[in-house]
Specification:
Elements lengths: L2 H9 L7 H4 L7 E5 L2 E4 L4 E4 L2 H4 L8 H11 L13 H14 L12 E7 L2 H20 L7 E4 L8 H5 L4 H4 L10 E3 L19 H4 L5 H16 L5 E4 L3 E2 L5 E2 L4 H11 L3 E5 L37 E4 L11 E6 H5 L21 H14 L2 H18 L8 E7 L2 E6 L15 H11 L2 E2 L2 E2 L2 E4 L7 H20 L3
Parallel strand pairs: 3-15, 5-6, 5-7, 7-10, 10-11
Antiparallel strand pairs: 1-2, 2-3, 4-12, 8-9, 11-12, 13-14, 14-17, 16-17
Helix pairs in contact: 4-13, 5-13, 10-11, 14-16, 15-16
The structure holds pyridoxal-5'-phosphate.
Length: 485
């Protein structure tokens, strides 16, 4: 066993990992990367098919990002945001405000997002939004009010205690029930397994052939109404726009987001958009851009596809192009103003982290934003998105593929025992994990969400590399599911 693998096994505790399983085999130790390729300690190469857990945008070792990082390193790596401003964080805040309020993107351009609170990770971006929304509500509705939040069934918003309180995946959240505050959940679209979808399964994305009466929207409306009857209504509505990630890459049918956010607004709830996964161009043309429209500017944020402007926009993962842990929570002037006061009034937002506004992260994020806005990069992303749609079709040949869902450059392939009755596999069969292990043996790395295989290629992925990713998934499904457990 490689000495680094030995050190890992002796000392490192990995996230979301059953360490008993981990200790049974030699881990892959990544030493370097270039573009969409990762290289391990034995010199083997792998394609990074989930963009290093949904973070990487432009590929590894990108010359522009490296140069920006080096330039910043030549000046300073970090100084505190407590009592000090700094160069790249100020510039980045201005850029984020600019792109978040892109005028052509939202129906109303309101509310205007013009303040940026930096933190470190997706979880902390949500934690900040939650605390701000909570306190803002108390200050506007009165100190005795007890702000309550509504989020979606299956939601995952991170692992800090506030973020966990907004989540509704029992596997991750139940164990910590005693630590959490109560939040409500409401039905989220899951067309493939929706009890209101009266269509028989077809060999297509379930959103395309669904037959329903938008009961998922009605449920949201009922939930808001019911809450209003009992009191002042929800303080905030928290959602991932267009696609729920850790819930199992579950996309929303076109129009759902605009409808439910309109309902939330009508009931006085603040909109908290978690774009930790969907942000920075991941949702591409939203599946709606025709090939050939090369000069079109792609929305950077998923909410913009449906003209939705939240009161809080939570960003992380791709913010630095997948280089460094950094997050941002954008909000409005009115939220900001509610925290203004005399020193002795203690209206201050008492929250912050040691590395808030870190210069290395901010400098890299600025370079990443610049790359994202290049026309050539946007055209390449549209081409890759269409290629992904095309290549995924080959997977329908397997009877174990129940649903293939794609939004932009995010795809989830749900594996089932039998596609006609949509029968899931038993948990102990570990089908998702085994398929991903078989993909790794074919030189392609990704992680499943249950039995949903996730593909989220870096934007620099070539057509040949994309084909290799899909071919590895195709063959891995065949190998794992054609042979007995
Ligand atoms: C939608 C969403 N929100 C929040 C988070 C938490 O982000 P982090 O792991 O950076 O804390 C994640 C992580 O996967 C996520 O997918």
């Amino acid at each position: 066993m490689h000495r680094l693998a030995q050190l890992d096994r002796t000392y490192v505790w990995h996230p979301f990992t059953q360490m008993r399983d981990w200790l049974k085999r030699e881990p892959i130790v990544i030493l370097s990367g270039k573009g969409a390729v990762l290289r391990d300690a034995a010199g083997r190469e792998y394609l990074d098919a989930n963009a290093s857990i949904w973070t990487n945008l432009h590929g590894h070792n990108h010359p522009r990002l490296n140069a920006a990082l080096r330039r910043q390193l030549g000046k300073i790596a970090h100084s505190s945001a407590l009592g000090l401003a700094n160069e790249p964080a100020s510039q980045l805040a201005a850029q984020l405000v600019r792109v978040a309020n892109e005028p052509r993107r939202t129906a109303t351009r309101e509310p205007h997002l013009n303040k940026v609170f930096f933190s470190d990770d997706g979880s902390t971006a949500l934690e900040v939004a939650l605390k701000l929304a909570y306190e803002f509500t108390r200050r506007t509705r009165g100190p005795k009010s007890r702000p309550r939040f509504l989020s979606l069934a299956g939601a995952y918003h991170g692992d800090t205690v506030g973020a966990v309180s907004l989540g509704h995946i029992d596997l991750f959240h139940q164990a910590y029930g005693g630590l959490l505050f109560r939040s409500d959940q409401v039905m989220a679209p899951y067309c493939y397994r929706c009890r209101f979808n009266r269509a028989q399964p077809e060999r297509a994305d379930a959103r395309e052939y669904r037959r329903c009466r938008w009961e998922c929207v009605t449920r949201v409306e009922q939930q808001f109404r019911a809450r209003k009857k009992r009191g002042p209504g929800y303080a905030g509505f928290v959602f991932e726009p267009l696609m729920q990630g850790a819930a199992g890459m579950i996309p929303q049918p076109v129009g759902w987001l605009a409808r439910v956010t309109e309902l939330a607004r009508a009931h006085g709830a603040l909109l908290i958009a978690d774009e930790v996964m969907t942000g920075f161009g991941r949702t591409g043309g939203g599946g709606r851009l025709a090939l050939g429209r090369r000069s079109v500017a792609l929305p950077l944020f998923a909410s913009q596809h449906e003209g939705v402007q939240p009161d809080f926009l939570c960003l992380a993962k791709g913010l630095t192009g997948g280089y460094l842990p950094m997050a941002a929570t954008l909000t409005t002037q009115s939220v900001f103003d509610a925290f203004l006061g005399e020193y002795e009034e203690f209206k201050t937002f008492f929250h912050g982290h040691s590395y808030t506004g870190n210069q290395l992260g901010a400098a890299t994020a600025l370079a990443s934003l610049e790359l994202l806005q290049r026309q050539s990069g946007q055209s390449a992303r549209i081409r890759l998105e269409h290629a992904l749609t095309r290549e995924l079709q080959s997977l329908w040949s397997w009877p174990w593929v129940g649903d293939i869902r794609q939004v932009g450059l995010i795809a989830g392939v749900e594996l089932v025992r039998d596609w006609r009755p949509r029968t899931p596999f038993a948990l102990r069969e570990r089908v998702g994990i085994r398929v991903c292990e078989a993909m790794a043996r074919r030189g392609v790395l990704t992680r499943p969400v249950g039995d949903v295989i996730v593909l989220m290629p870096p934007y620099c992925t070539t057509l040949t590399q994309l084909r290799r990713m899909i071919a590895a998934l195709h063959d891995a499904i065949g190998q794992v599911l054609s042979s007995p457990v």
